[in-house]
Write a structure and sequence with these properties.
The complex is a heterodimer of chains A (238) and B (316). With 238 residues, chain A is α/β, with parallel strands linked by helices. Chain A has helices at residues 44-52, 74-80, 97-104, 110-119, 124-127, 138-152, 171-179, 193-198, 216-223, 226-232, 234-237, and strands at residues 2-13, 16-28, 33-37, 59-64, 67-68, 82-85, 156-160, 185-189, 201-206, 209-214. Chain A has one domain: P-loop containing nucleotide triphosphate hydrolases (Rossmann fold), CATH 3.40.50. A six-stranded mixed beta sheet of chain A has the order 6-7-8-3-9-10, with helices on both faces. In chain A, strands 2-1-4-5 form a four-stranded antiparallel beta sheet, covered by helices on one side. Chain B has two domains: 2-288, no CATH class; 289-316, no CATH class. Helices cover 13% and strands 56% of the residues of chain B. Chain B has helices at residues 2-9, 13-23, 289-297, 302-315, and strands spanning 32-37, 40-45, 50-54, 61-65, 70-80, 86-95, 100-110, 117-127, 132-142, 149-159, 164-172, 177-186, 191-200, 205-214, 219-229, 234-243, 247-257, 262-271, 276-285. The longest helix of chain B is centred in the C-terminal third of the chain and has 14 residues, at 302-315. Classes of the chains: A alpha/beta (238), B mainly beta (316). Chain A binds chain B through residues 52, 54, 73-75, 78-79, 83-84, 86, 90, 92-96, 99-100, 103-104, 131, 148, 152, and chain B through 226, 254, 288, 290-291, 293-302, 305, 308-309, 312-316.
């Protein structure tokens, strides 16, 4: 189980603390899917990065299986079973899909690597030797991110807006990918109703705080109809 | 075969190891080859398709590839294991019409003395009409002596109509100082592709100068330089593309700079014809932080992540 205890994160602007996250207390059980949603700027990605260890919290502790991992670096957490599919996938100059997959894949055989790529809708033969660079589309990069999480087979999987850019694929396929990870604790940052619906619990962040949490049915009015638009912050931009 | 065996017997283990590093050869090749050791020709071997002759003044060799010869290769490594040697060689290559061949060259210096060792190789290529040449050049420096390992290759290229040449040059650490000069002239429809990979560390210095004159219509050059400068090393990259016709030229200089190293890129593009299209791109900087973080999320430590990024940047 992953547990966040009194997590706060702030930056200093003009000599004053600006809170991105304030006093977050959450726990994530194995075998469950959690959706984190909320308006733009509510702290969702910051929270994901704190779990992964990319950002150190200003206050609070992170526990994995009751072990305090707050001081552990990103790679140590990765090796303890935390995986993170980035919102904006990173590109490289020279690294190939096979290089990345070989880093994460415990089974060092090409058939297994190809299986992971195929399950995210990428033709393995075509992609395994492609470079992970800007010649790949946003959707292709997102799917490679998903394939890496699948290959890593971690205990805690964080997906930051996994649906972005995969329109040509389908939500149905995406949910199939998620179902293959059902023994882990899966945390999905999303605004999409279809994703929120399949989650066991929906957590709404607002202004860096947990505003509400519960199952989708209970929070339907918050996150659906105009709710989803509100969560994305569309009405603020318009 | 007797000659080859006696030639192998003349090489010590250090020389054999160098030979393997620069030309991926475990032994003397069976086809056309020319091996230069410590400033002298050790052995050369011609075939019916590729003729190798020593220049009359003894300054180097002339290589003649007959027209229409396909899928043949020539190995011509240079190995230096003596300190205090300043080797200068002039080699000329004549690639016949419609030929399609590969030349694997390179120089390895093993210097365990306190005196400098230096190799200056001047290679001049004449590509006849519609010929194709792939030229691979690897440079290696090693040995624990304080004497410098200096390599200064000069490559002159004359490309006739519709000829094609692809150059891969690789220098990964070990060479104290290098000045790499490449000059090319391209006639109608000629295409030149150059991939340079360079890694310097310690206090090593590497300077690269490319001058390419696109003389003919539809001539094309593509130069991609990828370099990594570590510690207190210094690199300077200069390119000069001259477009005198309807032509295309593209130079990409991509560098990673680490520690206290310094990299300079100086582009020059000179369009002397309104149909010339010349492009220069240069990007030099440290390894992007998000690349390291991404690999760390996959379980690699920071140093491991850096090494993976550098290796794939240079070698993929």
């Amino acid at each position: 189980m992953l547990r966040l205890e009194n997590i706060s994160y702030y930056t200093i602007e003009n000599g004053e603390k600006k809170y991105i996250l304030r006093d977050i207390n959450l726990s994530f059980d194995y075998g469950k899917f959690y959706a984190i949603t909320g308006p733009n700027g509510s702290g969702k990605t910051t929270l994901a990065k704190i779990i992964m260890g990319i950002i150190k919290p200003s206050a609070g502790r992170v526990f994995l299986d009751d072990i305090d991992i707050t001081e552990k670096d990103v790679d140590q957490r990765a090796n303890l079973g935390v995986s993170y599919a980035f919102q904006t996938p990173v590109t490289f100059k020279g690294l190939k899909v096979s290089d990345l997959m070989n880093i994460v894949c415990k089974e060092k055989n090409i058939a297994k690597l190809c299986e992971y790529l195929s399950s995210v809708g990428l033709c393995a033969r075509e992609y395994i030797n492609r470079k992970v660079d800007k010649n790949l589309s946003g959707g292709e990069l997102k799917r490679i991110e998903l394939a890496m999480v699948l290959a890593k087979n971690g205990k805690i999987n964080i997906f930051d807006e996994p649906e972005a850019g995969i329109d040509l694929w389908s939500f149905e396929k995406l949910t199939q990918v998620f179902s293959s990870l059902s023994s882990a604790s899966n945390i999905i940052i999303s605004h999409q109703k279809k994703i929120l619906e399949i989650c066991d619990k929906v957590i709404i962040l607002k202004n860096g705080k947990v505003d509400k949490q519960g199952n989708f049915c209970d929070l339907k009015h918050e996150v659906c109809n105009d709710g989803c638009a509100k969560l994305r912050g569309d009405d603020e931009r318009n | 075969m007797t000659d080859v065996r006696s030639c192998e017997a003349m090489m010590n283990e250090i020389e054999k190891a160098l030979l393997e590093k620069i030309s991926n050869l475990h032994k003397i090749p069976s086809g056309a080859f020319s091996i230069r050791r410590n400033g002298k020709l050790l052995k050369k071997s011609s075939t019916t398709d590729i003729d190798i002759e020593q220049k009359q003044d003894g300054s180097g060799i002339d290589v003649f590839v007959k027209p229409n010869v396909k899928n043949k290769s020539l190995h011509m490594p240079v190995i230096i294991t003596l300190g205090g040697l300043n080797d200068l060689v002039y080699n000329s290559f004549y690639i016949g019409e419609n030929a399609d061949v590969t030349i694997i060259a390179g120089c390895g210096i093993h210097n365990s003395t306190c005196n400098n060792s230096q190799h200056n190789g001047v290679h001049t290529f004449h590509l006849a009409k519609s010929s194709k040449l792939k030229y691979i050049e690897t440079h290696v420096g090693e040995g624990d002596g304080v004497g410098a390992k200096i390599l200064n290759p000069t490559t002159n290229i004359f490309m006739a109509e519709n000829s094609q040449m692809e150059i891969e040059t690789i220098q990964i650490e070990g060479v104290t100082s290098t000045l790499r000069e490449t000059n090319a002239e391209l006639q109608n429809g000629a295409k030149l592709l150059i991939n340079e990979k360079l890694l310097t560390c310690d206090k090593q210095r590497a300077k690269t100068n490319f001058k390419v004159s696109l003389l003919g219509r539809d001539s094309k050059v593509e130069i991609v330089s990828r370099s990594v400068a570590k510690e207190s090393s210094f690199q300077e990259f200069r390119s000069n593309l001259i477009g005198k016709n309807s032509c295309f030229g593209h130079v990409e200089c991509d560098g990673i700079v680490l520690d206290k190293a310094r990299v300079i890129s100086i582009p020059k593009i000179d369009a002397q014809n309104c149909e010339a299209s010349l492009v220069h791109e240069a990007a030099i900087g440290k390894i992007a932080g998000d690349e390291i973080v991404k690999l760390m999320t996959l379980g690699l430590g920071r140093k491991q992540a850096e090494d993976v990024i550098i290796n794939s940047f240079l070698l993929n």
